[in-house]
Specification:
0% strand; 52 residues; membrane; 77% helix; transmembrane; elongated; mainly alpha; single chain
Length: 52
């Protein structure tokens, strides 16, 4: 993939930041909870795999 193709991380981050400014605060909370659940799942899975 060349430099001009796709979206760079900086462009993606700016777009997410712009959309979240005027966005729905409830959706932001849902996304934060979802991220926390994913992180917790990864940690629990890692611990289970290490103990088995």
């Amino acid at each position: 993939m060349s430099e001009q193709e796709g979206t760079t991380f900086v462009q993606w981050r700016e777009r997410v930041h712009t959309e979240s400014d005027g966005g729905n605060p409830q959706m932001r909370l849902i996304m934060m909870v979802a991220a926390a659940v994913v992180v917790a799942g990864i940690l629990v899975g890692t611990i289970v795999l290490m103990l088995s």
